[in-house]
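Saturday, quiet lab. Running sequence design on the structure tokens for the scaffold JK sent over.
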């Protein structure tokens, strides 16, 4: 099956009891048993729920994986991964990543003596330099949030495989429409399904997809034992979102390109960070591992002026100033004070997250309205 067909049908079957084309929202916490041992594989909804199962099968299918797991949020999914580790284990992570991921690593798991190294992953040698016998996980986000750096998934997978280290990729920004990390050698793919997979800014959810049965079993155990699962209604919403992922992403990519090119040509703009530009430092890798360049971009205005950035996001009208990304509606954000506020200033500025940086999640509205909105807000700064 090709991707667009998988997005709609992958891992799905009509409801066996009624033929319903969409799975019912099994809003139940438990299942009647005729004799102890569950009913058709279900006994309690933290452990399993048929609406969640339908979603987990869809997630596995679109990421070309064998096993999908859904969680109550993207961070709950990351939490489950790190819970496979033990005190003394070390993780090498990209240094440019979602602020909440940095926060759970440093503020929660460092307390349990798990050691995190944050490195720029454009340079594979800097990853190799941090590997020692305690290294158990390499964690990459690509494109990175919010600087849109691109990390070579295949090159990192080769390093991880050679050393027997687990390799996970946060595929939230790209989605499986644009890249499939498992096909490039990753062991584990993670999503904040809150974003493009849900696609309508109406649900918070996380997802993991893997191919290895032992790894899946470890994660299923943690999913059930720690219990950060999503409910049946949220499962239904994300399943519904996935069915239009390919058409939404196509438009996100078109609009993202048009906005990036408009900003790049504007006299008040200093830098635009978008992997589709030939001048982007990782453009060649982006072209190699992604099918298009997505709808996320960041930029600074000339003079790198904090006040101008705040005025810009306050004056946008079609772009809503809000946390999150990947919904049908365009959003703007100020990473330094919003999504990345939990990263110390000196740390975030090293990767380019300066006080004047603005991030855009370009939605699927009419492109003329998006450009006109940016034009009028830039005229005021
Ligand atoms: O918000 P949650 O569903 O828990 O997912 C966390 C997360 C993980 N990984 C990436 C790349 C993310 O962007 C996020 C969440 N990000 C935002 C809320 C944001 O506005 O960037």
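Result came back. Writing it out in full:
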């Amino acid at each position: 099956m090709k991707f667009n067909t998988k997005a709609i049908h992958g891992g799905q079957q009509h409801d066996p009891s009624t033929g319903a084309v969409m799975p019912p929202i099994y809003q139940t916490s438990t299942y009647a048993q005729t004799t102890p041992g569950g009913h058709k594989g279900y006994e309690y909804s933290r452990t399993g729920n048929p609406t969640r199962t339908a979603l987990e099968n869809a997630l596995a299918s679109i990421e070309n994986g064998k096993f999908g797991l859904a969680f109550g949020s993207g961070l709950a999914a990351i939490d489950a991964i790190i819970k496979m580790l033990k005190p003394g284990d070390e993780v090498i992570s990209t240094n440019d990543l979602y602020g909440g991921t940095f926060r759970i690593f440093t503020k929660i798991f460092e307390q349990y003596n798990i050691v995190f190294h944050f490195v720029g992953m454009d340079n594979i040698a800097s990853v190799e330099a941090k590997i020692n016998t305690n290294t158990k996980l390499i964690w990459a986000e690509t494109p990175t949030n919010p600087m849109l750096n691109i990390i070579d998934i295949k090159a990192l997978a080769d390093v991880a495989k050679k050393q027997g280290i687990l390799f996970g990729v946060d595929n939230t920004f790209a989605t499986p429409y644009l890249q499939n990390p498992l096909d490039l050698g990753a062991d584990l793919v993670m999503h904040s399904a809150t974003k493009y997979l849900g696609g309508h800014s109406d649900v918070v959810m996380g997802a993991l997809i893997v191919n290895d049965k032992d790894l899946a079993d470890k994660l299923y155990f943690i999913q059930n034992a720690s219990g950060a699962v999503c409910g049946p209604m949220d499962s239904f919403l994300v399943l519904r979102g996935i069915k239009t992922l390919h058409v939404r992403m196509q438009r996100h990519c078109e609009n993202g390109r048009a906005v990036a090119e408009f900003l790049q040509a504007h006299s008040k703009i200093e830098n635009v960070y978008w992997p589709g530009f030939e001048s982007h430092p990782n453009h060649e890798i982006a072209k190699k591992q992604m099918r298009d360049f997505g709808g996320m971009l960041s930029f600074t205005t000339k003079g790198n002026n904090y006040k101008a950035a705040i005025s810009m996001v306050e004056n946008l009208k079609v772009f809503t100033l809000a946390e999150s990304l990947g919904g049908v509606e365009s959003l703007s954000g100020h990473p330094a004070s919003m999504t990345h506020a939990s990263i110390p200033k000196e740390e975030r500025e090293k990767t380019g997250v300066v006080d004047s940086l603005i991030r855009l999640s370009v939605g699927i509205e009419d492109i003329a309205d998006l450009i006109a909105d940016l034009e009028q807000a830039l005229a005021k700064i």
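Notes for JK: The chain is about 35% helix and 15% strand. The first strand starts at residue 67 and ends at 71. Ask whether to fix the surface positions before the next round.
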